[in-house]
């Protein structure tokens, strides 16, 4: 076998396979993976939106960077909220809508 490996044959010995570094894929929990993906996307998209708005509306560098930072903060906050829903397994609790006008069927 050593002769085949020295000659450039296609076979690789078992000891050579153990010496080669194994590339492991880091599989996270699917929920954490979804949160990481969501966080990166929201951060980038909101930062780009803040930069676009800054180029359109502001002239000074300070206000432009503040607009980008505000966009990034909004993105991180939105991602944090969504990730808390994903990781806790509950949907956001919305208050029950109360109509200011009672319906006719309830007035009996």
UniProtKB/TrEMBL annotation:
Residues 1-20 are annotated as: Disordered. Keywords: Membrane, Mitochondrion, Mitochondrion inner membrane, Transmembrane, Transmembrane helix. Its main location: mitochondrion. It is found in: Mitochondrion inner membrane. InterPro entries: Mic10. It comes from the Eukaryota. The chain crosses the membrane at residues 65-87. The keyword Signal does not apply. Component of the MICOS complex, a large protein complex of the mitochondrial inner membrane that plays crucial roles in the maintenance of crista junctions, inner membrane architecture, and formation of contact sites to the outer membrane. Belongs to the MICOS complex subunit Mic10 family. This is (wild Malaysian banana) hypothetical protein.
